[in-house]
């Protein structure tokens, strides 16, 4: 079987309205992909920077896959959350990006978005906090129904990923 090893980190995020942020992440791959080692989801710590607008997480990612084909190439998806001064968590954005297909070190910027909701949900959100969230989190990386959503752009997540491929040519998998 061909193998893909992803080693790196979620460096942090910037461009969000507030900076006390943490991130939930996960990796989704097609049915032909099998995880040999590593975690396919996790959560960073909260960072509340005082001098910079960049929330730094430096959260490690280390996952090893085996596959028989390229269909369903892995994607990494994110949920960025804000924690206010009294401990409430508010969703600030969703995002996803494909794991790079070429071996080497890659600097990736993943843009994020969040649902806007109806006019009344926007007013409620302004006074009470919170806001609309996706009922089905698969919409983050599966664009089949996402075009129906009204969204607004949020900040950017920064990643550094090292990609190692093994036996792709030996088994006839062309990248």
From TrEMBL:
Signal sequence, start to end: none
Record-level GO cellular component terms: MKS complex
Subcellular location as annotated: Cytoplasm, Cytoskeleton, Cilium basal body
Pfam families according to UniProt: B9-C2
Keywords on record: Cell projection, Cilium biogenesis/degradation, Cytoplasm, Cytoskeleton
An individual GO BP term: cilium assembly
Similarity comment text for this entry: Belongs to the B9D family.
PANTHER family: B9 DOMAIN-CONTAINING (PTHR12968), B9 DOMAIN-CONTAINING PROTEIN 2 (PTHR12968:SF2)
Protein name stated in the entry: B9 domain-containing protein 2
